[in-house]
Specification:
single chain; mainly beta; Methylamine Dehydrogenase, Chain H; 4 domains; 15-stranded antiparallel beta sheet; 5-stranded antiparallel beta sheet; 3% helix; elongated
Length: 679
């Protein structure tokens, strides 16, 4: 956010309709105000609930300063513009722009012209109010506070001045002869907005805690409402209601430090010594809202502006016109929350605006500083340019359809870079018939523009673009091979056996097409893949594979994902992945040469072996006692054959029986026993 272009907001200050795939064809639709607002407007307005049409045309004037911070228009149409860095005042009359005041202050925050034709300009940061008489004479008056934020004519011809950082409102004689305090907030540091009521009372809004005050003609004050947002940026009285623009600030936002820091940033930028992080305080400015208060005090939020905020507002013909701090947008909002996007300016901030005769009349922008004045008649030409559609992959575009009335034409272009450059196709030949096929070449990115010209009644309320992405191959990300829960059974002899293997497939499709799955298996030593489930698609990407009849060995699985359900033969694609090798072992180990040597010690010996997997455990039990672990002769279980021996504990003389149990990697077990006589 540019410091030199931002107004002193003292407070806390995607694709269009998502694409819908069906039968390989997707639709990009613009039908709501939110959708249309994502494009750019050139002399075109966006209206609720959704549509575009020609708007007013603007005459544009440039100033030397980087921001136009305040505007005032007289009854006879003379426009005054106050600027920042340095604080200057321009007069626009009969199409001629002339600077009539240049000061050493930072910014002109507000202006008004009194009944005698004297212009008053409030400035920061020294609380000065400049007066320029009709004869050009200048005078300077100071209020007993640092910041002069807002000016408002009083019913008796004097002038109210809202100030900070002491949260006061002063009454200044229109000749500047005296200044007296009429209000001081006990909790707010800055009063930054003022508005007059028909009964002579005034409204003022604060920037610390979002408090709206009413001050009657006798000076009695009351708090009407405490907004959740921190700043009441503007107040506008319209018809039987009051519009209030508020902004939010993050925790830690300090108004006085914000103003002081802004002053330092502006001075540093004038001197060319601004630091890269000089604008960090602006990052605390957040979302704005527009509210409406009825005369009975009921407050309703009409619009929230996520990731944007209000910089200025004016009442016009019962509506509120709002200038935004980002994207150069000007909105018109009615009492029911319906809205128009009146302008989409090239400059980032619309810092000031004024209405005249019930309509938007002038706008002031920041970075660079420009003045826009609305012509009385609508534009005879305008362009709406859509945001860029990212189809995700190279796509073929079908027809472009629209609804509305009147005569407009459409042009399209495509490319394969996120931002249009010289590699994009040129704009197509204009077409005027809805349903015309798009001639722009196949590409990933797409954009259109609507040309309004020659028909001031033309309106477009819906736009649809049809396209089909080039089919993308499904991806199989993984195959998990394991045992399902409770799949083990107990064989005769007590050994456990797993007759099933659980196979789970993880896959995705870039086009989000539904997928079907097939599984194939083979021994690692062979080349031929054998289809499971008779080659039919699996009902879901997981299956319990019964392996009781599968020969023991080392196997692999191949999982296939296909998008054949929504793509014709010859155009469907398949993705594959092969699993890591795994063992199918249906048979338990064998125990050979089991014997007991009875001597000074009793030693049991033997050999455990398995045809398919390693031996992982050997243990013995004497006379039905506990099982005792036996280490292999080489101390490591690392092969399919393991010799073992173990010294049995001392036994009483007589007949005994020892059982030996061996287990393989697959969990299969075998048991053998031998009888012997101890001495």
């Amino acid at each position: 956010m540019r410091a030199q272009a931002i107004l002193l907001v003292i407070a806390a200050a995607a694709a269009a309709a998502g694409t819908a795939a069906a039968g390989g064809t997707s639709i990009w639709e613009l039908s709501s105000k939110e959708h249309f607002d994502r494009g750019t407007l050139d002399r075109v307005v966006v209206f609720s609930p959704g549509g575009i049409r020609l708007g007013p045309s603007f005459a544009r004037y440039e100033v030397e300063e980087t921001g136009v911070w305040s505007l005032f228009v007289t009854a006879d149409g003379i426009l005054f513009a106050g600027t920042a860095r340095p604080a200057s005042v321009y007069r626009l009359q009969n199409g001629k722009l002339e600077r009539i005041l240049k000061t050493e202050e930072l910014a002109v925050t507000d202006m008004l012209v009194d009944g005698r034709g004297c212009l008053y300009a409030a400035t920061i940061p020294e609380g000065k109010v400049f007066r320029i008489s009709p004869d050009g004479k200048e005078a300077v008056f100071r209020i007993p506070d640092q910041y002069a934020w807002k000016l408002l004519p009083a019913p008796d011809g004097n002038i109210y001045v809202a100030s900070g950082p002491n949260g006061k409102v002063f009454l200044m004689e229109n000749g500047g002869g005296w200044v007296r305090e009429v209000f001081k907030s006990g909790r707010e540091k800055n009063i930054i907005s003022l508005a007059g009521l028909p009964d002579g009372a005034i409204l003022c809004g604060s920037a610390e805690n979002g408090v709206l005050y009413r001050i009657d003609k006798s000076g009695r004050s009351e708090a009407l409402h405490n907004f959740a947002d921190k700043e009441i940026r503007e107040i506008a009285v319209a018809g039987d209601g009051i519009y209030i623009a508020t902004n939010i600030s993050q925790k830690g936002f300090k108004q006085e430090s914000f103003v002081n820091e802004l002053a330092e940033v502006l001075r540093a930028e004038v001197q060319g010594t601004a630091q890269p992080d000089a604008r960090k305080e602006f990052k605390k400015l957040m979302n704005g809202k527009i509210h409406r208060m009825d005369r009975d005090g009921r407050v309703e939020t009409l619009m929230a502006m996520p990731a944007n905020f209000a910089l200025c507002m004016a009442a016009a013909d019962g509506t509120a016109i709002v200038g935004c701090g980002l994207e150069g947008r000007v909105l018109s909002i009615d009492r029911n929350g319906g809205s128009f996007t009146l302008a989409d300016l090239a400059e980032e901030q619309v810092i000031a605006l004024k209405a005249r005769n019930g309509e938007l009349y002038a706008m002031g922008t920041g970075h660079p500083g420009k003045i826009y004045v609305t012509d009385k008649s609508p534009s005879d030409r305008g362009i709406y340019q859509s945001e860029i559609l990212d189809t995700g992959f190279p796509s073929v575009f079908g027809s472009l359809c629209w609804e509305g009335r009147g005569s407009v034409s459409f042009e399209t272009r495509t490319g394969n870079t996120e931002k249009p450059d010289e590699t994009w196709s040129p704009w197509s030949v204009p077409v005027k018939a809805s349903g015309t096929r798009i001639e722009s070449p196949r590409a990933r990115f797409f954009q259109f523009r609507v040309n309004f010209g020659g028909d001031s009644t033309a309106v477009v309320t819906l736009i649809r673009t049809y396209y089909a992405r080039a089919n993308q191959r499904p991806a199989v990300m993984g195959i998990v091979v394991g045992q399902p829960r409770d799949s083990q059974v107990i064989r005769t002899g007590g050994e456990k056996y797993a007759p099933k293997i659980m196979v789970r497939i993880a896959a995705s499709d870039p086009d989000e097409d539904p997928l079907v799955f097939r599984l194939y298996c083979k021994e690692t030593s062979k080349d031929r893949w054998i289809p499971l489930n008779d080659g039919r698609p699996l009902p879901k990407p997981e299956v319990e594979w019964t392996v009781t009849d599968v020969p023991d060995g080392l196997y692999q699985l191949k999982a296939e994902a296909s998008d054949e359900l929504v793509n014709p033969p010859g155009e469907s694609l398949r993705g594959f992945r092969i699993s890591d090798p795994f063992v199918i072992d249906n048979r338990g180990p064998s125990i050979e040469g089991l014997s007991v040597d009875v001597g000074r010690e009793i030693v049991v010996r033997g050999r455990a072996s398995d045809a398919s997997s390693n031996i992982t455990r050997v243990e013995y039990s004497v006379d039905g006692g506990d099982w005792v672990f036996i280490s292999p002769s080489d101390r490591v279980f690392d092969s399919r054959t393991e010799d073992f021996s173990a010294v049995l504990p001392p036994l009483e003389a007589g007949a005994h029986r020892v059982r030996v149990r061996a287990q393989d990697t697959a969990g299969n077990a075998a048991v053998a026993e031998v009888e012997f006589d101890a001495r």
